[in-house]
Every structure is written in C-alpha cells, then in structure tokens.
Amino acid sequence: xxxxxxTSIPTQCLLGESPFWHVSRQSFFWVDIENGKLFxxxxxxxxxxxxxxxxxxxxxxxxxxxxxxxxxxxxxASYDLDTEVLTWQTEVESDLPLNRFNDGKCDAKGxxxxxxxxxxxxxxxxxxxRVGKDLIPEMQLDQLTISNxxxxxxxxxxxxxxxxxxxxxxxxxxxxxxxxxxxxxxAIEIPDDLxxxxxxxxxxxxxxxxxxxxxxxxYRWNPTTGKLLEKIDLPVPxxxxxxxGGENLDTxxxxxxxxxxxxxxxxxxxxxxxxxxxxxxxxxYEADRFII
Length: 292
Known about the structure:
Number of helices: 1
Binding site for substrate: 100, 102
Family: Belongs to the SMP-30/CGR1 family.
Radius of gyration: 17 Å
Pfam families: SGL
Number of domains: 1
Shape: globular
CATH architecture: 6 Propeller
Domain SMP-30/Gluconolactonase/LRE-like region: 15-258
Largest sheet: 4 strands, antiparallel
GO molecular function: calcium ion binding; gluconolactonase activity
C-alpha cells in the first residue's frame, strides 16, 4: 500500500513507546517501558543517547520550561536533562500496586491526559486522568483495560481515544476551556486481522496515524468515514506508537516491541524493538507542553 523509505535505529526495546519530538533540541525521544530506559536521537547527528531509571518509564512529554515530564510507574515527575534532577509532581492509584501509567498527551491548555492499566492486563482496571496546574489527577474515564492512544482535532472540538483490547477508536466531544469530554461515537473499528490499535497521532489533514500491535505497521485512518487510507508496512509485528517530528514535522518516529515474542519469532523479525523513521507526504503538529 506504500513506497515509503524506512530507516531503522537499533535500540532493541522490550517495549518501545512514547515517541516524542522535542522542538528546541531538534531530537526525538522515546522510552523502553519495562527496562526504564529513556532514548534521545538527534536527527542532525544521528546519535542516540540513553538514560536509565529504576522504574517502569511509560511516557515522555515536555514541560513549559523545556524540561521533560516523565511518567514512572504511577507517578509523574519533571526531569532536568542538564542536571539530571528528578522532581516528583503527583501520583495516582497508590492503592493499586499492580497498576502503572501508560500513554498520555497534553491538550491545548497544557493539561496532561494520561491513562493507567494493570501490569496483569486485568479487564476494567485502568482509568484516564486529567492533570492540571493544581497537579490533582481527576478521573475522566474508568473501566478501561489498556488506556492508550489519544489525539485532538485542530479545532479542539474532538478528542480521540483508544482502549486497545476493544479494537475501537472512540470520538468524544471536547470542551477546551473546562477540559471536559462527552462520548460521541465509535470513529474507527479495527478488523481482527489488522491487530490491535495502540498509540496514535493526528496529521494536519485530520487523519489518524495508528500503530497496530500485531499488525506490522502504522495505518492511516479517516476518523470521519472510518475508512483505511494507507499503511506503512514495517518489518516487525508489534508496532506500539508513532509521532510526527523533524524540521517540517513530516517525519514519523515509530516504536516497536519484542515482548510476547518467542525466540523463533525474534529470529524471524530481528528488528523487533527497534524504532523506525519514515518521511511522509503529510505533516503533524508540535506537541503541547504540560503547564504547571
């Protein structure tokens, strides 16, 4: 379905996730959740640096002052890349030790939307939270299993959200000033043979680029019609997330995973766990920052 040029960066993550473009550093970040690793890849030099944390590291975003915002197990922290000082900000679900954070994004008002899931994948154990300047997490959705990909339309009228095992991308009416969501409809239903929807991002045409876990690619969907438009075929089965970046915001960084693969499967798909850079014919948006 495509003729994309794909460049791989060998990182061999067990569970690569949370691709993020840091504009001022002109570099891509991503994480290896289970190994607590943070990666930074400078596009201009092609160099990749790593840091390790003694926690599951599930999410990286940017704070108002350029610092990193990290989700570590069930806590949110700010992290200064220069001093390597980690400052804890808030926590959720301290009564649920088997839960951890998963995916997250910031809205146009600088509020963090971040979900949880059980490390045992217990059905209905996850929730979606909104965290504002007061750093008090407020639950927006519950009874989730794997709280995952999110995106907002450019007009801030619509919020898209994935609970992975449902194979559905749901559309919510979004009220920007108050940061409230109201369920609208199922925008996209993923057929069983295309794997499970994981992380996603939105382009400037309003189309959703969705990483399909078990689907060997990133799929571009029209959330208005529910139709599949195109696919970036990748040489690994478990694609976990994607984000636009680069000088023109037209390069996708795509993460993948080695988890749940046998030794024979890893021999068949040796690039599993690597990340991939793909130049597209569309553009994304700069990510909004977390404003505390």
